[in-house]
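# step 3/5: fold
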Amino acid sequence: MNADQREQVRSNAKYLREVRPVDPEEIHEYVDGQPHPAAVKQVLHESAVGLGLVERADGTFEPVEEGPFSPTFHGVESFPVEYGRVLEDLLVERYGAGWPDGESGDRLRERIRAVKDDYYHQRDVTYDAETALAYGLYHLPDYYAVVQYVLTDIARDGLVPRRLRVLDVGAGVGGPALGLHDLLPGDALVDYHAVEPSEASDVLERLVAETRRNFHPTIHRETAESFEPADLADGTGSDQETTDGGFDLILFSNVLSELDDPESVVLRYAGALAENGTVVGLAPADRNTAIGLRETERVVADRGPDAAPDLETPVFQRRLDEGEATEGGLDGEERRDGEFVTVDVQYAYTFLRRDGRRRVDFTPDGSRAAKLADSDDHVTDRVDCYAAKLSHDLAAGDNALYRIGDGSQQADHFAVLTKESTLNADLRTAEYGDVLAFENVLVLWNDDEDAYNLVVDGETVVDRVPI
């Protein structure tokens, strides 16, 4: 179909969308040469983002419903089997049906170990084809789950529209893309752009091919630093009308720790946000990457760590974990049971918006409460202060431990519940993000963690602050 015919298809669609569902069988009659309806349908699909059309089950198109969607999310129990099959197909194509066993299984397990060690020691990771597959085996399920928990948080505030433009920076093998797709309703219209320079983009491309027809993916094989988000901010394209401009969601998932200057990159991308858009930064809830995210947040936003229920073990992780090693191979008897299974869903996150909207809008009376930024002046003293609860219970021992913050702190602060009473029970029962008033709390410095501990004991009162 030539350019003039394509424009005739779009012109007819613009008119009909205001009257009735756009039917390729009808439009083809009004186009010069009467191209086959299947060709008309393909043009409508390619132009759907710019035209604001979603494809219905009967093959016709209609305008996308405007406004935010209301999530009916109840958690993630398992990684979808259909996505797991695509990943296993890629493994079979590269290594054969016995990919979990012998030399290929050894190499994949060793590569997972190496990537985990590099991340822990904050070394650069190069994603060749084998590393991308190993990374997908280990992290695809939990990243798929994490993005749904985090985006549900902002969707419940009415901040995720059904007509959605997404920029996924450092998209990796596709966990966040698939999680976003499965969280959204089938009648959402998604213009999804992934920025991923490595060979992980090959895995991503295969996986997003499984998404619905109203999920329109484009992969940009460039680095986050070299990519120019402003070039896409107005939503123009060769087959599209100009959209309202800017991205509704810009996602940095487990990539900020890999950038040399994450603050400047995030701020540059934030310039491509829609007026009501949100930048979301995600990181694993380990100490190094969470600290890196906290350092970025000091320039751009507010965040906290959180956790969700464990996933069921995916078949492909179990197969790799139980695969037979070669005699004298790379891992042999070194392997620990369950070493290559990751089903825990723990993460740190940050939100950044341009409209000044805050998750919690509360300003304490500085004359009556201590700022956490001044904790060093209060070590061994009892003080009154306000802080938001920013985690679940992080303790491995008897005393409950919660990360807290008031936005002023330059070091980590944790509330340690050493003796629970009816007067301080709100610390345990408060939800993530709740603002708490601490009265007569003991401030101590923890050398081992380079953090301040606010000790909540029988002399401390903790109350939720109504917002």
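# step 4/5: annotate
The first strand starts at residue 53 and ends at 55.
# step 5/5: archive (pending)
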